[in-house]
Amino acid sequence: MQNLDLSRDFVIVLHETQDLVNIAGSVRAMLNMGFRRLRLVSPAEFDAYRIAGIAHGSEAMLEEIEFFDDLRSALADVRHVVGTTARGRTPAFVWQHPRPAAADLIPLATSGTKPIALVFGREDKGLTSEQLDLCDRVITVPTNPERSSLNLAQAVLIICYELWMAGPGAEQTLPTPRRHAPPATPEELQLLFDDYQRGLEAIDFFKKRDPAMIMRTVRAIMRRAGVNSREAKLVRAMWIEVRKVLERRTPRTGTGEG
Fold it and tell me: Is 90 helix (H, G, I), strand (E, B) or coil?
């Protein structure tokens, strides 16, 4: 995977798109997932300025789009062709779902110099059986059978996402807090529980409830949450402040000077 470059090793081919907005959505999806090469086969409309207004920051990519009059010409220089469809067909194509297909395509992409083509059909008809005959495999996205057809840009995003996650995306880590705190110690938790109970008493929460039972539940909640040291101190500070505010607002009684 070290030599993999999604922006070089794959080319997205949109066949006879009918709506410029779908081109824009596909461009945005490609950029999100690290793809850059786009070929358009006889699009019904194309306006780079309007597309850039929808897919912000795509100007450089739009300048590199390649245009073709027919699908066969658009696939003439690729090494492997992947078709996409939402229709259930009986012909003996090599069928796959996006995730297992991505696992196969990533190593294939790094084993040659020519790109792999991912072909998407027009919005209203998709790819015909004759057009799918040009493909080495066919990907279909599993969806609700009652609503199987995806928007073109959605289909591009799903398949590009699976390829991204099978490639460079797998190496991305989740965001981590800027400041790390260790788990709260038993002593810190006990101080938290004490201030928690005093705070509940200050607002007269218990009334006829059993304080011991309530606090047992509170302790279970906090322990399940796995609060760290900073979080324990924050919750303590909340309840301490509640008591301070109530004390300031409670009128003082006294005999006064006579």
Answer: coil
